[in-house]
Amino acid sequence: MTATTMAPRESSPHLLVVRNDKLGDFMLAWPALARLKSASPTPRVSVLVPAYTAPMAHLCPWVDDVIIDPGEDAGREAHRELLRTLKRQGFDALLTLFSTPRIGWLGWRAGIPMRLAPATKWAQIFYNARIRQRRSRSERPEYVYNIELADKLVEALGLVAGEPVTPPFWPLDDAVRKRERARIAAELGLQEARPWCFLHGGSGGSAVNLSAQRYVELIRGIERHLDADSPSPHWILTAGPGEEAVAETIREPLELAGISAHRLPPRQGLDDFALSLAAADLFIAGSTGPLHIAGCLDLATAGFYPSRRSATPLRWQTCNTDDHRLAFCPPIEAAEQDMASIDLAAASEAISALLRRLVAEQASES
Questions:
Q1: What is d(CA 190, CA 150) in angstroms, rounded to the nearest whole number?
Q2: Which segments of the chain are extended strands (E)?
Q3: From the Swiss-Prot or TrEMBL record, what is one GO molecular function term (predicted)?
């Protein structure tokens, strides 16, 4: 790191953390935000996020204030107003988890004294504290890279690091889960005692995913691997804006096959949708925002990833506990994004084993 560590602090610093791109990227920042809030004296943490992810920022227990980034293409006055806002806040430090020249320049013009970011391309010239991470090598999970940056900021500011924060990084009271299960059960006529498997077949426009037909094949395989005396799950299909047709393409053949498959009813915004996921026992998806919401909730997850070096299962690993996580990707000999080459027989066997374990654990707790 290129900045000198400060002497121990007696007052709480005000921090601005920036992760202003996709939903999944922001969810993988929550472990780092939790790490910052565990330091002493406890910092005040503001985040700069796009309007799209702002509802999740407001739900994050590790965030005190939310500032909206108008985005690269906003008009000059919007950018001037953002700069004025940052100057008024009087931040002690800026932590940019994904560095861009615009944000670096913004932090410098706002007069934020400590500015820390990954040492990435020429954007690093605007920062006086930098860490070389080489994230493109995908040697560690994204959320671990973020935690490393948070730890370096804690050290640089002279704060006392707190105890490591462990999953769930979105801790919800069990009453919330019960409320959401009761709500969905009433909407769809489901039995709350049966396992609930949520599946998100969309891609969010940024990630490759299994096709709808392959998801149908996967679910049928999971159902075949379940024991005869195992309770059959309810399958609840989620969809982002414009992805409803994908969910229907999965649901219809399952219903014809006698499998309990339903679409999650529309929700009032991203925050309402995210809270609905707390009702799940298992969440299956590609490497999308909803998968990473489920990871923050420490739900059991099964993710389908490409093998591209910058998008491996390790790099974009969910931040739930190890035994709650499954990941599948094309074999080495296949093309990076050849999702059709993923062995669905092996995936369905592994997912059904995880589901059986979850059911057994819940039975032993009741």
A1: 42
A2: 14-18, 44-49, 65-68, 93-96, 114-118, 129-131, 196-200, 234-238, 261-263, 282-286, 300-304, 325-328
A3: ADP-heptose-lipopolysaccharide heptosyltransferase activity
Q: What is the pLDDT of residues 223-238, one digit of tens each?
A: 999 987 778 999 999 9
* DSSP state letter for 143: H
The torsion of the CA quartet 168, 171, 177, 183, rounded to 10 degrees, works out to -120
pLDDT at 231: 85
Structure tokens at 144: 């671990």
pTM higher than the cut 0.85: yes
How far is the C-alpha of 364 from the C-alpha of 158, rounded, in Å?
46
| CB of 195 closer than 8 Å to CB of 231 | yes
> What amino acid is encoded at 14 in this protein?
H
Full set of structural domains in the chain with CATH: 14-156 (3.40.50.2000), 174-365 (3.40.50.2000)
Q: How confident is the model at residue 2 (pLDDT cuts 50, 70, 90)?
A: very low
DSSP three-state, residue 350: helix
Residue pLDDT, tens place only, 87-101: 999 999 999 998 889
pLDDT average, residue stretch 242-267 = 97
Closest C-alpha among 266, 244, 301 to residue 188: 266
Per-position b or e across 48-77, b if 16+ CB within 10 A of its CB = bbbebbbbbbebbebbeebbbbeeeeeeee
| Residue 250 tokens, joined | 């999965």
